[in-house]
Structure of ATP-dependent RNA helicase DeaD:
Amino acid sequence: MTSSDSETPVLFSDLGLAEPVLRAVSELGYETPSPIQARIIPHVLAGQDVLGQAQTGTGKTAAFALPLLSQLAPEASGVQTLVLTPTRELALQVAAAFQRYAAHVQGFRALAVYGGQGYGEQLRGLRQGAQVVVGTPGRIMDHMRRGSLDLANLRCLVLDEADEMLRMGFIDDVEWILEQTPESRQIALFSATMPTAVKRIAQRHLKNAAEVSIAVRTTTAPTIRQRYWRVGGLPKLEALTRILETEDSDGIIIFVRTKVETEQLADALAARGYAAAALNGDIPQNLREQTVAKLKTGRIDILVATDVAARGLDVERISHVVNYDIPYDTEAYVHRIGRTGRAGRSGEAILFVAPRETRMLQAIERATGQRIESMELPGVARINERRVTRFKAAINQALTHSQQQFYRQLLGEFCAEDGLDPLDAAAALAALLNGGTPLLLDPAKEPLPTRSRAPNPKRERGDIPPGARGEGPSKGRPSARHPSAELETFRVDVGRAHGVQPANLVGAIANEGGIDSRSIGRIKIHDTYSTVDLPGNLPPAVVATLKKAWVAGRPLAISRFNETAAAPKRPGKPARITLPKDGKPKRSAKPRVSKGRPKSK
């Protein structure tokens, strides 16, 4: 988390956060707030409604989580904060962030609530008294209707990625939830864009809101080649070592998140024979200057650093920047890779991405407007080839040693005395020099390939809704998200007569089935049913879960199209709308677009 190089950085301690929260922030290695955190936190602490326009990856989760935790009332009963997110993945991510930031808050509990997970675990979490609930709109509605989620004591409602909830068809659910919450609650709404429906919600429900818009610095030098490796198959340290062995590099900066990690990783690399040093905010200025001087002169080749420690660092010989830990915000990524590729020189930027960090990768690509290409780790054969080449080069260099003649005479006498072949003696010396460690890797230890595909930016922007193109059943077409999975057509028992839209189906299937929305292919809405292209290798448990999911007030009753085409099901009845005595429909009486089965109060 960084501020601009030219500004005097604001510190977290300047923002008025509670001491336990500040302690957790420090232990996590956060040094200065990102721009959105510096601007949003004071408003949330003051109890003011907030309308924030910011991309994913700007650090907005901490912008609302840190001040809300600082205001937490431990003695109060019931849910104090509700966070609505468009996807289960984001719900889990936000709940985990709350739990990390509350490491020193006594008795704190955050609970993620989403479709596709059994109700039992969620009901237990609610009974145990979670102060913060993070969830997808449909499942939150289900718990509210069941009476298992009581929002009578709600103090703040956060709408995270409101435009994405609109795209996935959840905006009516969000409106319904807002109407059931206390008038006195605070609202923080975050959205990357401000479409009309999101603006309407803000105008209707937010009061005297502070509007904060963050323009992310997204310029990256065209001379920097950007790649990412999908973490898996090998430990990160082993993967890093392979990259260092095979890349033609000069000076390298490796970025990690915390001060502790700089020391740990630098020590681990030094133990493997690399000239590496750590650089973090705890290192005195004179030692920092000495370390940077060593990097400039080639006495060390690798610097393991945090974001703040590397601010303003300009070393001409930096050929590679490795993001060993993905940054918390897109601006930090731009700042990091800007350490290479300067003044027209070429540079290499490599990013390690764990599966749970895919959203951050997508955010970086959207913010910079550049596709980051996937890379595969060097294989055993390539590693061994490089090691043999370096071994031969070391021998050639040693042939020019000033004492070459002396050692030649000594070895000659030794071989003559014991009747040894000179090659055997040379082989023994080589093994001795290598310290008993095998020179070559064992081919049997080759990990499985971890090739991955970058997301489709057009689909991510929502310009083309999933299923908007084409008609009819399909089978055998590859999935864009999972190239090894062929798409197959499924039928669902909800159609045009029930008021369903493609986005409604995408939202229900993605959240209830845990299916990435980009894996959902063509959708065709018919009068009383619809067809949806999904990966054909869906596990039976996922299909069973989707059969029970509800959308537009009806169960999906999903089935494979080829199983139902021969014997079409009877048309279902449209959802009934009950009108009150005055004849005017209430908002909550609309056909519900959600994922879980509704229950009457």
Observations:
- The first strand starts at residue 50 and ends at 53.
